[in-house]
Amino acid sequence: MKILVTGSAGFIGFYVSKVLLDKGHKVIGLDNINDYYDISLKLSRLEQLGIDRKKAVVFNNTCVSESYQDFSFVRMNIENRERLPELFQKEKFDIVCNLAAQAGVRYSLENPESYVDSNLVGFLNILECCRQYNIKHLVYASSSSVYGLNKKIPFSTEDNVDHPISLYAATKKSNELMAHTYSHLFKIPTTGLRFFTVYGPWGRPDMAMFLFTDAIIKDKPIKVFNYGKMERDFTYIDDIVEGITLIIDKPIQERVQNNDFYKLYNIGNNNSVKLLDFIKEIEVNLKKKSKKDMLPIQPGDVERTWANVDALINDYNYSPKTSIQKGVKFFIDWFIEYYKQ
User: Fold this and answer.
1) Which of 204, 191, 1, 197 lies closest to 98 in space, CA to CA?
2) Which residues are catalytic?
3) Looking at residue 270, what is its pLDDT?
4) Check: CATH 3.40.50.720 for 2-198+235-269+306-321?
Protein backbone atom coordinates (compact mmCIF):
# COMPACT_ATOMS: atom_id res chain seq x y z
CA MET A 1 0.00 0.00 0.00
CA LYS A 2 0.99 3.63 -0.31
CA ILE A 3 0.83 5.24 3.13
CA LEU A 4 1.19 8.84 4.28
CA VAL A 5 2.85 9.09 7.70
CA THR A 6 2.60 12.60 9.13
CA GLY A 7 5.01 13.49 11.92
CA SER A 8 7.60 11.21 10.33
CA ALA A 9 10.55 13.12 11.82
CA GLY A 10 8.96 12.68 15.24
CA PHE A 11 9.64 9.91 17.73
CA ILE A 12 6.74 7.58 16.92
CA GLY A 13 6.38 8.61 13.26
CA PHE A 14 10.02 7.79 12.50
CA TYR A 15 9.65 4.26 13.88
CA VAL A 16 6.30 3.66 12.17
CA SER A 17 7.76 4.76 8.82
CA LYS A 18 10.72 2.38 9.20
CA VAL A 19 8.59 -0.64 10.15
CA LEU A 20 6.11 0.00 7.32
CA LEU A 21 8.99 0.22 4.84
CA ASP A 22 10.48 -3.02 6.20
CA LYS A 23 7.07 -4.64 5.62
CA GLY A 24 7.18 -3.63 1.95
CA HIS A 25 4.85 -0.62 1.90
CA LYS A 26 5.50 2.64 0.06
CA VAL A 27 5.71 5.51 2.54
CA ILE A 28 5.58 9.26 2.10
CA GLY A 29 6.77 11.00 5.27
CA LEU A 30 5.59 14.49 6.16
CA ASP A 31 6.77 16.74 8.99
CA ASN A 32 7.16 20.48 9.57
CA ILE A 33 10.33 19.93 11.67
CA ASN A 34 9.36 22.66 14.13
CA ASP A 35 11.67 23.82 16.91
CA TYR A 36 9.58 22.63 19.89
CA TYR A 37 12.67 20.53 20.65
CA ASP A 38 16.12 19.95 19.12
CA ILE A 39 15.76 19.96 15.31
CA SER A 40 19.05 18.08 15.02
CA LEU A 41 17.47 15.02 16.67
CA LYS A 42 14.60 15.10 14.17
CA LEU A 43 17.01 15.36 11.26
CA SER A 44 19.09 12.50 12.67
CA ARG A 45 15.97 10.32 12.73
CA LEU A 46 15.33 11.18 9.08
CA GLU A 47 18.93 10.27 8.28
CA GLN A 48 18.16 6.77 9.62
CA LEU A 49 15.56 6.63 6.85
CA GLY A 50 18.08 7.73 4.22
CA ILE A 51 17.05 11.38 3.97
CA ASP A 52 19.73 14.05 3.49
CA ARG A 53 19.37 16.50 6.37
CA LYS A 54 20.28 19.52 4.23
CA LYS A 55 17.51 18.71 1.74
CA ALA A 56 14.99 17.84 4.44
CA VAL A 57 14.84 21.39 5.85
CA VAL A 58 13.55 22.92 2.59
CA PHE A 59 9.81 23.54 2.84
CA ASN A 60 7.53 21.73 0.34
CA ASN A 61 10.50 20.02 -1.27
CA THR A 62 10.17 16.24 -1.72
CA CYS A 63 13.35 14.34 -0.79
CA VAL A 64 13.91 10.79 -1.97
CA SER A 65 15.56 8.34 0.43
CA GLU A 66 19.07 7.16 -0.36
CA SER A 67 18.55 3.82 1.44
CA TYR A 68 14.82 3.04 1.04
CA GLN A 69 13.62 3.11 -2.55
CA ASP A 70 10.00 3.31 -1.38
CA PHE A 71 10.43 6.27 0.99
CA SER A 72 10.33 9.98 0.32
CA PHE A 73 9.93 12.93 2.65
CA VAL A 74 8.37 16.36 2.38
CA ARG A 75 8.64 19.21 4.87
CA MET A 76 5.16 20.66 5.19
CA ASN A 77 2.67 22.00 7.72
CA ILE A 78 -0.54 19.97 7.84
CA GLU A 79 -2.38 23.26 8.42
CA ASN A 80 -1.34 24.36 4.90
CA ARG A 81 -4.70 24.30 3.07
CA GLU A 82 -3.18 24.66 -0.41
CA ARG A 83 -0.20 22.30 -0.28
CA LEU A 84 -1.72 19.38 1.62
CA PRO A 85 -4.53 18.67 -0.91
CA GLU A 86 -1.98 18.94 -3.73
CA LEU A 87 0.08 16.21 -2.05
CA PHE A 88 -2.98 13.96 -1.67
CA GLN A 89 -3.99 14.50 -5.27
CA LYS A 90 -0.51 13.74 -6.55
CA GLU A 91 0.30 10.68 -4.42
CA LYS A 92 -3.10 8.92 -4.23
CA PHE A 93 -2.56 7.39 -0.79
CA ASP A 94 -4.34 4.24 0.35
CA ILE A 95 -3.97 4.92 4.07
CA VAL A 96 -3.09 7.91 6.23
CA CYS A 97 -1.36 7.55 9.60
CA ASN A 98 -1.60 10.97 11.25
CA LEU A 99 1.00 11.31 14.00
CA ALA A 100 1.72 15.01 13.41
CA ALA A 101 0.72 17.18 16.35
CA GLN A 102 2.00 19.81 18.68
CA ALA A 103 2.96 17.61 21.61
CA GLY A 104 3.46 18.30 25.30
CA VAL A 105 1.11 19.05 28.17
CA ARG A 106 3.12 21.80 29.88
CA TYR A 107 4.02 23.68 26.68
CA SER A 108 0.29 24.09 25.95
CA LEU A 109 0.17 26.49 28.92
CA GLU A 110 2.78 28.71 27.25
CA ASN A 111 1.93 28.52 23.56
CA PRO A 112 -1.73 27.56 23.10
CA GLU A 113 -1.93 28.92 19.55
CA SER A 114 0.42 26.24 18.18
CA TYR A 115 -1.93 23.53 19.50
CA VAL A 116 -4.90 25.08 17.73
CA ASP A 117 -2.93 25.43 14.47
CA SER A 118 -1.52 21.91 14.33
CA ASN A 119 -3.94 19.79 16.34
CA LEU A 120 -7.24 21.38 15.29
CA VAL A 121 -6.76 23.21 11.97
CA GLY A 122 -4.20 20.66 10.79
CA PHE A 123 -6.34 17.68 11.76
CA LEU A 124 -9.37 19.16 10.01
CA ASN A 125 -7.27 19.48 6.84
CA ILE A 126 -6.27 15.81 7.16
CA LEU A 127 -9.93 14.80 7.53
CA GLU A 128 -10.96 16.91 4.55
CA CYS A 129 -8.23 15.40 2.38
CA CYS A 130 -9.28 11.89 3.47
CA ARG A 131 -12.82 12.77 2.43
CA GLN A 132 -11.93 14.37 -0.91
CA TYR A 133 -9.36 11.78 -2.01
CA ASN A 134 -11.09 8.54 -0.97
CA ILE A 135 -8.63 7.41 1.70
CA LYS A 136 -9.43 3.82 2.73
CA HIS A 137 -8.47 4.21 6.40
CA LEU A 138 -7.28 7.04 8.67
CA VAL A 139 -5.28 5.97 11.74
CA TYR A 140 -4.53 8.88 14.05
CA ALA A 141 -2.87 9.68 17.37
CA SER A 142 -4.89 10.63 20.41
CA SER A 143 -3.52 10.63 23.96
CA SER A 144 -4.01 9.24 27.45
CA SER A 145 -4.18 12.91 28.51
CA VAL A 146 -7.85 12.95 27.52
CA TYR A 147 -8.67 11.04 30.73
CA GLY A 148 -7.87 14.13 32.79
CA LEU A 149 -8.81 13.66 36.44
CA ASN A 150 -10.48 10.28 35.83
CA LYS A 151 -10.27 8.28 39.08
CA LYS A 152 -11.26 4.85 37.72
CA ILE A 153 -8.23 2.64 37.07
CA PRO A 154 -7.35 1.24 34.58
CA PHE A 155 -8.57 3.81 32.06
CA SER A 156 -11.08 2.49 29.54
CA THR A 157 -12.29 4.00 26.26
CA GLU A 158 -15.79 3.54 27.73
CA ASP A 159 -14.99 6.10 30.45
CA ASN A 160 -16.31 9.65 30.32
CA VAL A 161 -13.56 12.04 29.18
CA ASP A 162 -15.39 15.35 29.27
CA HIS A 163 -13.02 17.00 31.74
CA PRO A 164 -9.57 17.53 30.16
CA ILE A 165 -7.15 19.51 32.32
CA SER A 166 -4.79 20.82 29.62
CA LEU A 167 -5.34 22.43 26.23
CA TYR A 168 -3.27 19.62 24.69
CA ALA A 169 -5.75 17.06 26.08
CA ALA A 170 -8.68 19.19 24.88
CA THR A 171 -7.30 19.22 21.32
CA LYS A 172 -6.86 15.43 21.37
CA LYS A 173 -10.42 14.91 22.62
CA SER A 174 -11.50 17.27 19.83
CA ASN A 175 -9.69 15.10 17.28
CA GLU A 176 -11.70 12.09 18.41
CA LEU A 177 -14.97 14.03 18.08
CA MET A 178 -13.99 15.41 14.66
CA ALA A 179 -13.05 11.92 13.43
CA HIS A 180 -16.37 10.57 14.73
CA THR A 181 -18.24 13.24 12.77
CA TYR A 182 -16.40 12.49 9.51
CA SER A 183 -16.82 8.73 9.99
CA HIS A 184 -20.56 9.22 10.53
CA LEU A 185 -21.21 11.74 7.76
CA PHE A 186 -18.86 10.53 5.05
CA LYS A 187 -18.30 6.84 5.90
CA ILE A 188 -14.54 7.33 6.37
CA PRO A 189 -13.02 4.48 8.44
CA THR A 190 -11.06 6.10 11.28
CA THR A 191 -9.12 4.54 14.15
CA GLY A 192 -7.94 6.70 17.04
CA LEU A 193 -5.20 5.55 19.40
CA ARG A 194 -4.78 6.93 22.91
CA PHE A 195 -1.03 6.61 23.50
CA PHE A 196 0.26 6.04 27.04
CA THR A 197 3.72 7.51 27.93
CA VAL A 198 5.83 6.23 25.05
CA TYR A 199 9.59 5.92 25.65
CA GLY A 200 12.67 4.37 24.04
CA PRO A 201 15.69 5.16 21.84
CA TRP A 202 15.29 8.33 19.72
CA GLY A 203 12.70 9.58 22.25
CA ARG A 204 11.65 13.15 22.84
CA PRO A 205 13.94 15.38 24.97
CA ASP A 206 10.96 16.86 26.85
CA MET A 207 9.91 13.46 28.24
CA ALA A 208 10.82 12.21 31.75
CA MET A 209 13.03 9.35 30.51
CA PHE A 210 15.26 11.76 28.57
CA LEU A 211 15.28 14.55 31.15
CA PHE A 212 16.16 12.22 34.04
CA THR A 213 18.94 10.44 32.16
CA ASP A 214 20.52 13.67 30.94
CA ALA A 215 20.41 15.29 34.40
CA ILE A 216 21.80 12.27 36.26
CA ILE A 217 24.73 11.95 33.84
CA LYS A 218 25.49 15.67 34.29
CA ASP A 219 25.22 15.51 38.11
CA LYS A 220 22.22 17.82 38.06
CA PRO A 221 19.13 17.35 40.24
CA ILE A 222 16.08 15.83 38.60
CA LYS A 223 12.67 17.44 39.03
CA VAL A 224 10.34 14.93 40.67
CA PHE A 225 6.79 16.28 40.60
CA ASN A 226 4.01 15.52 43.08
CA TYR A 227 6.84 14.55 45.46
CA GLY A 228 7.26 11.28 43.54
CA LYS A 229 3.67 10.14 44.03
CA MET A 230 3.11 9.53 40.33
CA GLU A 231 2.46 6.39 38.30
CA ARG A 232 2.58 5.96 34.54
CA ASP A 233 1.76 3.24 32.04
CA PHE A 234 5.21 3.48 30.43
CA THR A 235 5.04 1.88 26.97
CA TYR A 236 8.14 0.93 24.98
CA ILE A 237 8.25 2.27 21.43
CA ASP A 238 8.39 -1.16 19.73
CA ASP A 239 5.15 -2.19 21.44
CA ILE A 240 3.44 1.03 20.33
CA VAL A 241 4.60 0.61 16.74
CA GLU A 242 3.51 -3.02 16.68
CA GLY A 243 -0.01 -1.93 17.62
CA ILE A 244 -0.10 0.82 14.97
CA THR A 245 1.15 -1.42 12.17
CA LEU A 246 -1.22 -4.27 13.11
CA ILE A 247 -4.09 -1.82 12.62
CA ILE A 248 -2.70 -0.47 9.34
CA ASP A 249 -2.08 -3.95 7.90
CA LYS A 250 -5.47 -5.45 8.80
CA PRO A 251 -7.96 -5.21 5.91
CA ILE A 252 -10.73 -2.71 6.57
CA GLN A 253 -13.45 -4.38 4.45
CA GLU A 254 -15.16 -6.21 7.31
CA ARG A 255 -15.54 -3.00 9.30
CA VAL A 256 -16.95 -1.21 6.27
CA GLN A 257 -19.46 -4.01 5.62
CA ASN A 258 -20.61 -3.76 9.23
CA ASN A 259 -20.89 0.05 9.08
CA ASP A 260 -18.26 0.14 11.83
CA PHE A 261 -16.45 3.24 10.62
CA TYR A 262 -15.31 4.78 13.93
CA LYS A 263 -12.98 3.01 16.36
CA LEU A 264 -11.05 4.20 19.39
CA TYR A 265 -8.47 2.24 21.38
CA ASN A 266 -6.07 2.62 24.28
CA ILE A 267 -2.55 1.57 23.37
CA GLY A 268 -0.21 1.05 26.32
CA ASN A 269 1.71 -1.51 28.31
CA ASN A 270 -1.34 -2.58 30.34
CA ASN A 271 0.58 -1.88 33.54
CA SER A 272 1.28 1.05 35.85
CA VAL A 273 4.79 1.77 37.18
CA LYS A 274 5.63 4.04 40.11
CA LEU A 275 7.71 7.04 39.05
CA LEU A 276 10.29 6.41 41.78
CA ASP A 277 10.72 2.79 40.57
CA PHE A 278 11.21 4.13 37.05
CA ILE A 279 13.91 6.50 38.31
CA LYS A 280 15.56 3.65 40.22
CA GLU A 281 15.78 1.64 36.99
CA ILE A 282 17.57 4.55 35.28
CA GLU A 283 19.99 4.78 38.23
CA VAL A 284 20.74 1.05 38.01
CA ASN A 285 21.60 1.32 34.31
CA LEU A 286 23.70 4.46 34.75
CA LYS A 287 25.31 3.02 37.92
CA LYS A 288 24.69 6.41 39.50
CA LYS A 289 22.34 7.82 42.12
CA SER A 290 20.13 10.77 41.26
CA LYS A 291 19.79 14.03 43.16
CA LYS A 292 16.07 14.64 43.53
CA ASP A 293 14.35 18.00 43.67
CA MET A 294 10.92 17.09 45.08
CA LEU A 295 8.24 19.45 43.77
CA PRO A 296 4.43 19.83 43.79
CA ILE A 297 2.39 18.52 40.88
CA GLN A 298 2.48 20.65 37.71
CA PRO A 299 -0.65 22.26 36.24
CA GLY A 300 -2.15 19.91 33.66
CA ASP A 301 -0.47 16.78 35.07
CA VAL A 302 -2.33 13.71 36.34
CA GLU A 303 -1.16 11.48 39.18
CA ARG A 304 -1.70 8.09 37.57
CA THR A 305 -2.26 6.50 34.16
CA TRP A 306 -2.96 2.89 33.30
CA ALA A 307 -4.38 1.62 30.02
CA ASN A 308 -7.03 -1.04 29.65
CA VAL A 309 -5.99 -2.50 26.29
CA ASP A 310 -8.42 -5.45 26.20
CA ALA A 311 -10.16 -4.15 23.06
CA LEU A 312 -6.88 -3.90 21.14
CA ILE A 313 -5.90 -7.39 22.29
CA ASN A 314 -9.29 -8.79 21.20
CA ASP A 315 -9.47 -7.04 17.83
CA TYR A 316 -5.81 -7.11 16.76
CA ASN A 317 -4.06 -9.65 18.99
CA TYR A 318 -1.98 -6.79 20.41
CA SER A 319 0.67 -7.99 22.82
CA PRO A 320 3.06 -5.53 24.55
CA LYS A 321 6.20 -7.48 25.42
CA THR A 322 8.88 -5.07 26.66
CA SER A 323 9.44 -4.88 30.41
CA ILE A 324 10.44 -1.61 32.03
CA GLN A 325 13.85 -3.17 32.85
CA LYS A 326 14.58 -3.99 29.19
CA GLY A 327 13.09 -0.78 27.85
CA VAL A 328 15.09 1.50 30.14
CA LYS A 329 18.30 -0.38 29.29
CA PHE A 330 17.67 -0.01 25.55
CA PHE A 331 17.11 3.73 25.98
CA ILE A 332 20.20 4.29 28.14
CA ASP A 333 22.39 2.34 25.69
CA TRP A 334 21.13 4.50 22.83
CA PHE A 335 21.48 7.75 24.78
CA ILE A 336 25.10 7.06 25.73
CA GLU A 337 25.98 6.09 22.15
CA TYR A 338 24.12 8.98 20.47
CA TYR A 339 25.39 11.69 22.81
CA LYS A 340 28.80 10.02 23.30
CA GLN A 341 28.48 10.16 27.09
Assistant:
1) 191
2) 168
3) 87
4) yes
